[in-house]
Write a structure and sequence with these properties.
It comes from Ktedonosporobacter rubrisoli. It contains 15 helices and ten strands. The protein is an alpha/beta fold. The longest helix is centred in the N-terminal third of the chain and has 25 residues, at about 20-45.
């Protein structure tokens, strides 16, 4: 639900985006206490499942990669699939639900299913008293509820919380953490310095027929998340996927009136994204490049880009946040250019308001 509706900039979405650096520090500090109380259960788990819906599912996918970086095997599943088609569970399993408000039907059903199977259950959610908490062995509360329906700060907070859980577990097992979060707030502040640039880019490309976002690993998840945010806030056509998925069919429907955004920080997928940039350029479609300084000014992606948006360098799983913030701002300014309300989920349109009442989320 949107509180205190606004009709012009700055919308609630903008304020949430800009609050993320400070929030990341607060969330990391607060999460450490609950993480330490649940670490024995996590350590004893036969399997760890990370589940969510929409943006929260994207957070679960990033959580899977954060745990992987820490040497811990997990499985990310959509809460709908977990509730209706999930694996047979046992008390030796741990299920972690990510949910902005803890109130969605299939998030609740998924956690209830795990609870009834005797699993240890963790809920990562925003402030408040979520219904799903009744099925949670541990509840990790992050930030005040997003006032915009296009969630931003709660996504960042969930990822930070998952990073704390991964670090706590690997430290319990090995005595060391997988990655430091100490300088994350400063990194995120640096990311927000791209605001003027991405505002200009939004004014140049808001009329694109379709916006394609492509990356690999955590950047593939970021591509999906930003595509979702574009759809929610400006109602533009946008698709996000892994670079390899893009190469096997979807590229055949692109047109010169489209825009590509290539998310290419240092990591295992970077070379493949570089190869793909040549294909985009050959077809005559402009692309923007998200770069952490590892793409040299002489290489193909950098040379061919219509613009390069720079982000600070960090551990690859944490690029899910550093590459995220400039694209959240780009998304926001697309909505400003289109004249839509990025907070409202299109519910100011009577058709969509009526439609939203037909299916309970």
């Amino acid at each position: 639900m949107v509180a205190e509706p606004r009709t012009h900039h700055p919308y609630h979405m903008y304020e949430a985006i800009m609050a993320q650096p400070e929030a990341s520090a607060n969330v990391a500090r607060d999460a450490e206490q609950i993480a330490s109380t649940s670490v024995e259960k996590l350590n004893a788990a036969r399997r760890i499942f990370l589940i969510g819906i929409g943006t929260s599912f994207h957070a679960a996918q990033i959580g899977h990669l954060l745990f992987r970086e820490a040497g811990i095997t997990t499985q990310a599943m959509h809460a709908f699939d977990f509730a209706l088609y999930g694996p047979t569970l046992s008390p030796e399993d741990v299920v972690i639900l990510v949910s902005h408000r803890g109130s969605k039907v299939y998030g609740i059903e998924a956690l209830k299913r795990a609870h009834e199977a005797g699993c240890t259950t963790l809920l990562i959610t925003g402030q408040g008293e979520p219904v799903s908490a009744r099925y949670a062995s541990y509840t990790l509360k992050t930030v005040e509820q997003d006032k915009a329906s296009a969630h931003t700060i709660s996504y960042c907070a969930a990822i930070v919380t998952l990073a704390v859980l991964a670090n706590t577990l690997t430290k319990h097992r090995t005595g060391t953490i997988a990655f430091s979060l100490e300088n994350l707030p400063e990194l995120l502040k640096t990311c927000l310095e791209s605001e003027e640039q991405v505002q200009t880019l939004a004014s140049q490309y808001f009329q694109a027929r379709r916006i394609w976002l492509v990356g690999g690993g955590p950047s593939a998840v970021t591509a999906q998340e930003i595509a979702l945010k574009i759809k929610e806030s400006s109602y533009l056509q946008a698709e996000g996927m892994s670079v390899e998925a893009m190469l096997h069919g979807p590229f055949q429907c692109v047109e010169p009136e489209d825009l590509f955004i290539l998310i290419a920080p240092k990591g295992a997928a970077q070379e493949r994204v570089a190869q793909f940039s040549a294909q985009v350029r050959a077809v005559g479609i402009p692309y923007l490049l998200l770069d952490d300084g590892s793409n040299t000014k002489n290489n193909q992606p950098y040379q061919g880009a219509a613009a390069v948006v720079s982000v600070p360098s960090t551990y690859e799983p944490l690029t899910a946040l550093t590459c995220l913030l400039p694209l959240q701002l780009f998304t926001y300014y697309l909505a400003i250019q289109k004249g839509t309300n990025p907070d409202g989920f299109r519910l100011e349109d009577p058709r969509f308001a009526a439609g939203s009442k037909q299916v309970k989320l």
